[in-house]
Amino acid sequence: MAAAAAAAAAAASAVAAEEKEGEERAWKEMLMRMLPPGAPVPDDEQLDYSIAMEYVGPTVPHDVPQIHPVDARFLMGQSASALVSVQEYLAPQRRTSLSRRLSQRFLGAVEQSQRQEMMESEGEDAYSPRASSSVHDQSPPSGSPAEPAAVTFNHVDEQGRDEDEVSEPIGRKRGVCSRCGKGNVLREREACLVCDSRYCSNCVLKAMGSMPEGRKCVSCIGRPIDESKRSSLGKSSRMLCRLCSPLEVRQIMKAEKECPANQLLPEQLVVNGRPLRQEELDEILGCPIPPRRLKPGRYWYDKDSGLWGKEGEKPHLIISSKLNVGGKLRTDASNGNTQVYINGREITKTELRVLKLAKVQCPRETHFWLYDDGSYEEEGQNNIKGNIWGKASTRLICSLFSLPTPPGNSNGISEHSPTFSTRSVPMYQVGQKLLLLGPEGSGSSTIFKQAKFLYGNKFSPEELHEIKLMIQRNMYKYLGTLLEGRERFEEEALEGKNCTIDAAASDARDDGAETRPCIYSINKRLKHFSDWLLEIMAMGDLEAFFPAATREYAPVVDEFWKDPAIRETYKRKNELHSLPDVASYFLDQAIEISSNDYEPSEKDILYAEGSPSATASPSSSSPWTTGIPYRSPTRTSTTARLPIKVNSLSNSNAKSNLMGETAPNEVNTPPPPPPPFFLPLSLCRYQLILASLRGPTEGCKWLEMFEDARAVIFCVALSDYDQVLARGPGQARNKMMASRDLFEGVVRHPSFRGTPFVLLLNKYDAFEEKIGRSPLATCEWFRDFSPVSAQGSSGQSLAGHAFYYIACKFKDLYFSLTRQKLFVGQTRARERATVDEAFRYIREVLKWEDARQGNLYGLADESFFSTDISSSPFIRQE
Ligand SMILES: Nc1nc2c(ncn2[C@@H]2O[C@H](COP(=O)(O)OP(=O)(O)OP(=O)(O)O)[C@@H](O)[C@H]2O)c(=O)[nH]1
Ligand SMILES: [Mg+2]
Predict the structure, then answer these.
(1) What interface predicted TM-score (ipTM) does this complex get?
(2) For residue 33, is it within any domain?
(3) Which range (103-112, 381-390, 570-579, 667-676) has the least confidence?
(4) Closest ligand 1 atom to the C-alpha of 693?
(5) Which of 152, 463, 739, 796 qualifies as a FRET site for 58, CA 20 to 30 Å off?
């Protein structure tokens, strides 16, 4: 009996085992059918597929949810784990625990639990909600009688995103992976181009599958991308490069750029008031010079000239002309109000300004015809008046005003050769603008010059000539400052002795062997020269005489510099606030500098105060320096330089130069900065533009020219904290406070809203040298500086501490104005390596900013940079 029972039990268990085996085999076969041919069946632990079973039970009394599958062929293949979306006919009561477990694994744990909670609260079981909402694109048109849409889908917004995606789901939290729910703000995340779900490196391939349309969640495949991400199409990320082979990355990026689902739709582009048709879009994209980075929007297009812009805005590009696209160009296309018309369009103020600077006569009610080669004529006159882009100076002005110039040769005649692939050739040679600003004497010119030595072309002969003249003129400025100081010190000394200066002067004998009334007294001959020099300086006429008379007076300068009275005066240089420390360097070489053959050395160039203005070699190859008309030195020194510093000039300060021209003193006048050049800091070339600041920036019109700057680099001299800016009697101002106000003015300027700022705290060497003897609290902004004694004990660490303190002061100020982080660097601009470091840092900042704007990943606080790591307490703390 017992044996029979045991046999029966054994038979029963064999049957059960066989059944189980059969069931498993059936599962396996089903899985095999769903997987790509040859793919191994993953074991239970590794199983990462969402699957469904076909319901074969009795008819259910309620409507069955109907979801159409994503075409699995798209999702399979390559190295990534494919994720199969399902056709689910499963009634709630028949869902197996396995399917639930699988769907649970398929969803991000966090998202799933959230949804499960929601379902449970509604009394429903959790079934694969991701599948239901995510494949809704595939569902038949609503109301189709054959396949009633029994699943309630979320509301879909205009861009095809459902409510969950529009309202921030939990996985969208900064740094939180949308799939596994793990968060780390410092870790890189790959974002879906459609719904912006972010995935960590562990989940990205599982969530995005083989990426047949690039970086999209599997459930977003087939859906149009989020337009704000269009510019990142085809640009790979570090994470992807780590996870996939180079070939795979290339294929994914190619698919991302070229797959139909990611292309612009013609109706997304409205040109001259009319949405495009497919053939028009094809014509635009296929023309020799198409608009770059075309985004959906409303544009205007002037088919005669090729000018292209956003509706209501100035021209942005020049594309191929004569394309038959869009409606008719409207008069108000660019919202101009100048009563000057080009090809029927009323031009904007900026265009008019450029035309005027290019000396094109354009009184009101002028109607021009502009052709695509740049030639123009007045309407009805049949007489070509010139070529608008023919002059290099006009092209420079256009670039400064962010107006387009045609690609092609320097005559402005575009070369549309059919064999010339313009798609891969950038339209312009102009890179992103980096605007370098700084108050007087902060060292911005030195940084610019160092950058030019590092990354730019050599100084042209004309630039060198101008630097030479600048050095010669500066030499007389330094001498004048010394003579002014000498007079003051002499007066003070003689007052102490109770004798008058006139008496003292009368004692002085011409041979210089007189008994001097005091150590600051000079002989009559020198006194005579001194009075003359101080007078022309007071009249503001120094530039009218020097450098022209440099050679003539060189021996006098040398004599002065060696005179005991001037040596004594120089000993008190700390009291002569406008005397820079380079004065002695140049006065030591007064005779050499004044010679006709003098050629400034690299050191002279760097030490020279100021920078060459916008004169350049006509033979230079840079688009910025080619053909800019060379002006005579005298003109350059007055008319060209003044506008940069013009903010502090009032109308009454306008003065005439030797040629009888009046220097522009309007704050609206664009400054002619030194020729910018490109910094090949990365694949993207940056164009460094230097502009020197004088006076308040409120209403400063020329700053508007740089509103498209990629970043503002603001330079402040650390050593200014105990310096005084003399602006006439009773107007002495601490230089650091003046720098702070100027910085605040630039930050507040409407043109730079949203523009990243990098502050370069320069002259760290001079700062380090003086901080031990001159307390930082001399500057009222730094009154609360109280160095920790251990750190303040040695000069160097005190300087480091003070640097950090000042940087934080600026950071706090910047944050209070913008709620943004200020990036701070440290330089000793005379040392080239520190400038190189600073620009590397700036490049990193721009990369971080790009990443931040693309919201790819969070950032650590990398907002400090010091060229001398050991001297930065912040870096040590980090
Ligand atoms: N010791 C020291 N001197 C510097 C440093 N950077 C610049 N200088 C000197 O400071 C003086 C002024 O520098 P510039 O570069 O002409 O200053 P700027 O900001 O262009 O001033 P403006 O041309 O007057 O607008 C020059 O003599 C430079 O050699 C620095 O890091 N350390
Ligand atoms: Mg300068």
Answers:
(1) 0.98
(2) no
(3) 103-112
(4) 25
(5) 152
